[in-house]
Amino acid sequence: MIRIETLVEKSPRLLIDEQVVNWRRHFHQHPELSFQEEQTSAYIVEVLESFEVFTIETGIAKHGVIATLAAGSGPAIGVRADMDALPIIEQNDFSYTSKNPGVMHSCGHDAHMAILLGVAAILADHYQRGDFTGTVKLIFQPAEEDTDEYGKTGAPYFIEAGVADELDSILALHMCPWLETGAIQLHQGPSMANIDNFHLIIIGKGGHGGYPHESKDPIWMLSFILQGLYGLISRKMNPLEVGTISIGKVTGGETPNVIPDEVQITGTIRSYTGAVRQQLIKEIEQVAKLVHSFDGNYQLEIERGEPALDNDPALIEQIKTTAKRQDPSMKIVEEPYGMGGEDFSHFTKKLPGAMFFLGCAKPGEIQKALHASDFTIDEKALPIGVDILVGTILDLLRSNRP
């Protein structure tokens, strides 16, 4: 393990950049699923302990790690990286492809952790030289991708542990394969979606396929429900609002000549604001009641997921200012990040926070999609992420504002 003295004394920038790549490749080779990040956590602790300046806490959300630098009075800034991988069989052919069959870092969390360790290395040096006052907490969070038996991802456990109460603001980044290296994407306010899922059971009365008049056909009822659900966005929602409903699964019936007793549909609800979130849920309930007109019944279950990612405008402006100062040629795209979900939103619901997307597509090459089995990144993006986070942290600390 490279000690902080070595990183700083021997061409520190080059050594840190090389080490960040090595850290990323280590994480990529050894991916672990949500709430199973035991070896990942142990490795992070080993690296952090080698710097000999951090107070380290472990065990939140099973394998979470928090590394703290406290240098007198001043703002308390958090920086979060997620740790978990996905149940995907990797289709890449690198020397550092996954050694854990069926598990892969295909969302960039390996890069997020490596970048945060790079931030740790540089901040450790600043701390030793007395360059700032205030507190920095580096948060390595398990389980962004999946929930446990209680329906929770990793972030809510940090909230429950009081971590957000100890901070004035919090930062994060996400790899962005739709932008080339040297670009970042920023957006103020709601930037990723509220995530809710629904499960609707349409209940009728089964019967013989040759005598449909003797049954209460739930598949026939389903045809009206589907029209109602798909018509909600175009006819019930304000076209200036952001929201959508998609159905991902329909199940019912066993054989061609038997009308089933029930049909089940499962779907997802995406929105940017609380008002639209509530309206979509209400409208789904109204559509479900259509089955009463056909002498049927229903059961509807709504599964609440992550809130919308709400980026603090002042923090986004600070990230933008810092990035432009460091590289005036940096391309900055100011657009929302899409309808995906991100459990960092639990932090931004509790305190001022901001996540930016870091371009990582190799120039001139076919872009790789997040969660794809061939996902990869341009590792030249890693030091850019380190620099933006370190610069923003120091700017916030030195300006003595959260």
Automatic annotation (TrEMBL):
Required cofactor(s): Mn(2+)
Annotated ranges, domain Peptidase M20 dimerisation: 194-289
Binding site for Mn(2+): C107, H109, E145, H174, H371
Keywords, ordered alphabetically: Hydrolase, Manganese, Metal-binding
Molecular function per GO: metal ion binding; N-acetyldiaminopimelate deacetylase activity
Database matches in InterPro entries: Amidohydrolase (IPR017439), Bact_exopeptidase_dim_dom (IPR036264), Peptidase_M20 (IPR002933), Peptidase_M20_dimer (IPR011650)
Pfam family for this entry, one: M20_dimer
Free-text comment on the cofactor: The Mn(2+) ion enhances activity.
Gene Ontology BP annotations: diaminopimelate biosynthetic process
Gene3D superfamilies listed in its UniProt record: 3.30.70.360, Zn peptidases
PANTHER family attached to this UniProt entry: METALLOPEPTIDASE, PUTATIVE (AFU_ORTHOLOGUE AFUA_6G09600)-RELATED, PEPTIDASE M20 FAMILY MEMBER
NCBIfam families: amidohydrolases
UniProt protein name: Amidohydrolase
Organism: Natronobacillus azotifigens
Lineage per the UniProt record: Bacteria, Bacillati, Bacillota, Bacilli, Bacillales
